Amino acid sequence: MRRWVTGGVVGAVVLLGVAAVVVWRSSADASGGEPVITVSRSSCGQGWTDPKPGTQTFQLRNSGAVTAEADLVDPSTGTVFGEVEGIGAGTTRTLEVTLGNGTYAFRCAPEETDPILGPSVRITGGDERSGPAVVPVTRNDLLQPLQDYKNYVGSGLVTLSGDTDALQAAVHSGDRAASEGAWLKAHLSYERLGAAYDAFGDTDGAINGTADGLAGGTADPDFTGFHPLENGLWHNENMAALAAVADRLDGDVHSLGGSFADLQIDPNDLGLRAHEIMENTLQFELTGRTDYGSGTGLATALANVDGTRAVLDALRPVLATRIDLPDVEEWLNRTETALRSGQRGDGGWTPVGQLSREQHEKIDGAVSGLTERLAPIAAITAPRRVS
């Protein structure tokens, strides 16, 4: 099963940039003197009576009967400086932000109710800049990127189906070397579809699951797809016995391709997976945890870079004015170069466990740097209700 790694705080706070200072505490932890801002279906932003520049803390008190979220925004542009989600009825959350000169207001969005914009407050006399901040993304903004990415995945599944057909034929022929080459080509085609795995449902586990957590380990009947085939090919298992594994894999891939048009990719997934694809690469591929004998973890990591590029290409119209895309692309290129340093002259790949310490550190550093720069995208592209 694909393991998505999440690093967010449960309950509530959305970071709008790498440098954001946004924290939450329960009402019992609130220090005295912090302005208490009301949030409800009928009132929003009341209680901000002493506007001042610099770093400050607000207590967001939900006096209503339903859960709500609250944003601190520029009322003229909708730019969001801070956001707290999941403020339960009768509870309080804390928002800490840095504000420069300008006009601000709280926008409250109770469940099942249109957002309410509170009174505007003007700050003057400050020397600091507000931020980080982002113009909110709506569901309508994501419609075309989602369609573009779905088209990418649909095309990728056609390629994948052809690749697993070739893999199936190679295994049935009994040619182990040809089967190993066909396995790698097909597996990399699947790994490039990284932001769509949730839409695949249980089929993802059937196609690309590992033996982790299975009672029988690699011998468990629920261990299916690419990795048992990898395990068998590179550990000299009988080719005739592996034919059934290849048949099952090819059938699952074709079944997925046939049903994909009816599947839905969650609007939140594109931005979230842009970060998590590479986070998983760092945690699983670059530690060898998903290597069942092929030693191709670096090739998989490179396919994950390709998958991340595809997500960013789809989101480009949304991200172009919201993050420093050239910087992200520079780190994508840097990561690709680092990974290719592990490719041998004959086109094969150095297993992760055989990398020199210097090589491993350079690769880990590049992937970590890229992952850090991708991290804000999830919050930036999370669809928000603005009207």
CATH class of the largest domain: Mainly Alpha
**Unreliable spans:** 3-31
Order of helices and strands: EEEEEEEEEHHHHHHHHHHH
Distance between the termini: 38 Å
Q: How would you describe the shape?
A: elongated
CATH superfamily heading of the largest domain: M75 peptidase, HXXE motif
Structure annotation, total helices: 11
The proportion of strand residues reads 5-15%
Integer count of domains: 2
Features:
387 residues; alpha+beta; Immunoglobulin-like; A middle domain of Talin 1; 2 domains; 6-stranded antiparallel sheet; 3-stranded mixed sheet; 9 strands; 44% helix; elongated; disordered N terminus
Description:
The protein has 387 residues and is of the alpha+beta class. The chain folds into two domains: 103 residues, Immunoglobulin-like, CATH 2.60.40; 243 residues, A middle domain of Talin 1 (Up-down Bundle). It has eleven helices and nine strands. The strands form two sheets. Strands 1, 4, 5, 7, 8 and 9 form a six-stranded antiparallel beta sheet that branches. Strands 2-3-6 form a three-stranded mixed beta sheet, with no helix packed on it. A hairpin with a 6-residue loop joins β4 and β5. α1 packs antiparallel against α6 and α2 packs antiparallel against α5. The longest helix has 35 residues. The N terminus is likely disordered.
Topology:
Blueprint: E1 13-14, E2 36-39, E3 54-62, E4 68-73, E5 80-87, E6 92-99, E7 102-110, E8 116-117, E9 121-123, H1 139-173, H2 176-191, H3 197-200, H4 202-208, H5 226-234, H6 239-259, H7 267-283, H8 297-319, H9 325-340, H10 357-374, H11 377-381
Parallel strand pairs: 2-3
Antiparallel strand pairs: 1-5, 3-6, 4-5, 4-7, 7-8, 7-9
Helix pairs in contact: 1-2, 1-6, 1-8, 2-5, 2-8, 5-6, 7-8, 7-10, 8-9, 9-10
